[in-house]
Amino acid sequence: MKQNRLTKQQDWEDYWDKLKLPAEIKKSKNNLYLNEILKIFDKFLPKNSNLSILEIGGAPGQYLAYMQKNFHYKIHALDYSSIGCRKTKENFDLLNLKGIIYQRDLFSHDLSDLPKFDIVYSQGFIEHFLDLEKVIEKHLELLKPGGILLIGTPNFLGINHLVLKKLAPRLIAQHNLSSMDIRNWENFEKRFKLKVIFKGYIGGFEPRIYHYENRMFLNRLIYIFFRGIRIITDNLKFLRKFNSKYWSGYVIGVYRKPGQKQ
Known about the structure:
Elements lengths: L8 H9 L14 H13 L7 E5 L5 H10 L2 E6 L2 H13 L4 E5 L13 E7 L8 H10 L1 E12 L4 H9 L1 H5 L11 H7 L3 E11 L11 H19 L12 E9 L6
Parallel strand pairs: 1-2, 1-4, 2-3, 4-5
Antiparallel strand pairs: 5-7, 6-7
Helix pairs in contact: 1-4
C-alpha cells in the first residue's frame, strides 16, 4: 500500500512534533465551520457510555476528546506516527481523558489482535491515499457488524482547488481529489453494502482551509483577500446552509455496516 500513499511518515512526525497541547475540538462562536461538523456528530451518533469508538489517524485525540465528553464513549486512537501517538497520550493526560492508543500502520501491520469497535471513524485521513475502496475496507475490518462508520475529508474541489493550487501546490499534491467527489463514494457503498445514514457537503464556503506556502506578494494578497471574505461568512450564518462540492469546506458520510448489531 506504500505506493498509494500521498504522504510520508516523516511528514506526520514533523507535523505532530510542532503541535502545541492541549488540543481539543469543541463548539465555538468563532468557528462556525467546525460547528457544522460537530452538528453531524450530535445528530447521527448515539449517546451510550457502553459503546467503543476508534479514530483512525487519531493523533492528537482532539476529536476523541469531544467524543468522550459529549457521548461518553470508550475512546481509542490508531496512528502510525510515533510522535503522534506520544502527543496523543500527553493530550489525553492533559485533558484528563481515559483512552487507549495503538501505534500501528493500518495497511502494513497485523491488526487481528485488536478488538472490533462499535464506531470507527476518520477525519482527514482517506484523502491521503489513492485507493479509496481499500482505505474504507480497512476501516470496516475494525468495525463490528451493525456498527457505525463515519468518514470526513476537507473538500479541495471547485473554487477551493483553484485557490489552493495557486497558494499551496504541495498541499494539493498530498491529497487525492477524487476522494472528495461524493459521487465516487457510491462505489464503496455498493461494494460493502453500507446503509447510508447521512452523506453530503457541509460547512458552506470556508476560507479557513486556505493557507499559502510561497511567500510571493500576490499569494499573500490573495490570502488576505479571503481572510476578509471569512469575516463576511462568519457574520452571515445563513450562508452555512448552502453547500456544494464546488465551494463547501467539508464532506462527510455516516454509514451502518451490514450485519446484526452485537
